[in-house]
Amino acid sequence: MSETKSPLPREVADAYVDALVALDPVTGTYLGVKESSSRLPDFSPAGREALAELARDTLAGLAEAERRPGADSDVERRCARLLRERLTAELAVHEADEDLRAVGNLHTPGHAVRDVFTVTPTRTEEDWAAVAERLRAVPAALAGYRASLALGLERKLYAAPRPTATFVDQLSEWADTDGTGRGWFEDFAAAGPESLRAELDAAAGVATAAVVELRDWMRDVYAPAVEGAPNTVGRERYARWSRYFNGTDLDLDEAYGYGWAEYHRILGEMRQEAEKILPGAETPWVALAHLDEHGAHIEGVEEVRVWLQDLMDRAIEELDGTHFELAERVRTVEARIAPPGGAAAPYYTAPSEDFSRPGRTWLPTMGLTRFPEYDLVSTWYHEGVPGHHLQLAQWAHVAENLSRYQATLGGVSANAEGWALYAERLMDELGYLTDPEHRLGYLDAQMMRAARVIVDIGMHLELEIPADSPFHPGERWTPELAEEFFAAHSSRPADFVESELTRYLTIPGQAIGYKLGERAWLLGRENARRRHGDAFDLKAWHMAALSQGSLGLDDLVDELSAL
């Protein structure tokens, strides 16, 4: 009888993806797995424990796989390092019972239930039949989520009051999007075929009723129970979440100091650009307010979508062959308008594994119909090209040279957000942001990311504001001071600022990954440039960097430096 060989790390990682998709059909849908389209996950405590048990079993299998001959090759080693780091970080979050207080204005099970419909296939009648089945699964999914939150209450593990109030408001909007009694699910189902009209309408009604039931429980039971709980998480919980989102154990005090250093540097550049737009402006944000009224802008929701599509298409045409080498299927990306009832920030969704669903950028309009250009250009370099789209689509394109896990589920937030912020800076370096309006908008976005490091770490750890700060020096951060600081150093409207601060309270440690990730990418590039000298090839470096899959920040610097 022949001896069965134990798997190598990449095989262990890919087996994990298969097993996870069976437990989590939302993940399956984002990957493009057709069989996932009709189901939703079990968000109950038992469902979350099943995911944790899968992670534990996978780590045990990985330890055995690393002892096999060939496991020390670069591709196997890199995959093993990522898989171990990610699963260990995820288990730390689970074992601290963070699943039992997952409430906020994005990235909760409630948001996952709604948002997955925006990427569920809807091309054929068969697709829509699966949508109807998935709609009928909404009540069980939300009931499981509610069971987890109820267990959290029982164990006195409370979500923050402010994100809780925001989530209740969001649920109300999903239940009745325009005040006419029709919910988000009814609006979504309305695009289905007439042959399934009665079934879709009935299923959408069932889904909306479940949203209403969750909303009422959150409002009448959960919100009163968490009233008076802290809105911030403290150093221990913050360090755990920071590891989860950044893939490394950060020196949080050093990172806080770096945020302030970037704040001062960027502010100096902003003042120079503002002087070109509105000489004598008291602050750069006075000049940006001037642009809100008098700067270049796009009128109309469909018009701004077309404008953003053209911006990305032109970037692809001009960067491909010069600074990147793009496969044909990576060259396709779509600009979309985000559905109402979500957070205020733009976002990106990656293509399915087979590219049957392309990468897409999403613009929340927040009810607006007039869009200043300065607020869009560098943002779409970040979300689209050469930002999130080029990285995540390239991972999918080279998946066969990595592992399925590296190309999809193993993403480290700070790696991806750091690349996207690096992409904005790259476009500035390449001369795409010479227009004073566009460059001031880019610097405003950079300042927002520096402010995120300051306020996210500062308020959760209740750190002292430095003596050289122009804002409340010597005081200790609170969410109220954080919101005031953010508003004073951003061109964004009040509803965006409020949404942002709620986001930081919802997912502590994630917002710092933009600037800290950018720092890692820049350091890796500089190290590689020094190593190669005059022979350094930026295009080759970009493509090698984008083809290695995700890594935590420490590992990322090591690998980028060696390219």
UniProtKB/TrEMBL annotation:
Organism: Streptomyces shenzhenensis
Domain of life: Bacteria
PANTHER family in UniProt: DUF885 DOMAIN-CONTAINING PROTEIN, GLR0591 PROTEIN
InterPro entries xrefs: DUF885 (IPR010281)
Protein name: DUF885 domain-containing protein
